């Protein structure tokens, strides 16, 4: 681990705010989705919006917990939620838990390596970037679902 | 601008490699798209894949040039390309140009502020993150188009 006198590209706080900004947008996407179609609508054999959002929930806090605690957990995607309200309540709990866990990660840890969920190897920073990128990716797919349903999604650039 | 003795969350080189990894995936998405549908297919009144990729091209090099050169350019989205081959050739040129421009950005610049395309204000790092996030967002929409066309997209996790 090199300690260098430098100007950071981004700070730990920047990266947390960036992720939470994306999470706020994803929350608005969930809110915008019609209740029934959230659990039933898909395109081209893809997963429903609820299944995509389950994946994001399965990754965010459990992934960050492994980073903060240097622990290992299995990926568990199945939730028994049957309403958007349950997703939104969980989303808000997780937003707070992400802030709590983030504070436990010292700066020097971001360049260390980890194997999340017992199988995905990389640096800490690249693991966190993967969580965020994967959220952007699946949320964008839900944007297409909303457009196909004739509903205007929230603006991508509003965080 | 604070100069701190610290371990960076990510280095400038990390961020370039991260973006270029995403660009490689977007290139494979363009390759996977059928020629005719690239210019004609859409869902829910959204733009075609060629229009989405035009936007990415309009942002990447011109945006980074403004960052590297501290210059201002207008956003010009219109390209007269009529084949995927022209998009792919431009993509490859831009990949090299991004590497060239990136080398001109000193580390201390990432926390400075800029107004790209004369209108989008933020830090340099957040502007670059926006370019990458916007690429992930629109590429994911093209993933749904491909699935709707019965074609399996490239794996999201392969960079």
Automatic annotation (TrEMBL), chains A, B:
Top-rank lineage group of the source organism: Bacteria
Cross-referenced InterPro entries: DinB (IPR007837), DinB/YfiT-like (IPR034660)
Residues bound to a divalent metal cation: 138
Database matches in SUPFAM superfamilies: DinB/YfiT-like putative metalloenzymes
Entry GO MF terms: metal ion binding
Entry keywords, A to Z: Metal-binding
A Pfam short name: DinB
Family: Belongs to the DinB family.
Record-given protein name: Damage-inducible protein DinB
């Amino acid at each position: 681990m090199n300690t260098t006198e430098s100007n950071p590209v981004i700070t730990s706080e920047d990266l947390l705010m960036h992720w939470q900004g994306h999470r706020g947008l994803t929350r608005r996407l969930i809110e915008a989705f019609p209740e029934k179609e959230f659990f039933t609508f898909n395109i081209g054999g893809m997963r429903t919006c609820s299944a995509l959002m389950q994946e994001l929930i399965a990754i965010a806090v459990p992934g960050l917990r492994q980073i903060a605690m240097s622990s290992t957990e299995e990926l568990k995607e199945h939730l028994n939620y049957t309403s958007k309200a349950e997703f939104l309540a969980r989303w808000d709990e997780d937003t707070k838990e992400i802030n709590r866990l983030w504070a436990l990660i010292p700066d020097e840890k971001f360049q260390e390596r980890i194997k999340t969920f017992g199988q995905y190897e990389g640096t800490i920073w690249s693991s966190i970037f993967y969580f965020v990128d994967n959220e952007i990716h699946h949320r964008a797919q839900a944007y297409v679902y909303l457009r196909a349903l004739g509903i205007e999604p929230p603006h991508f650039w509003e965080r």
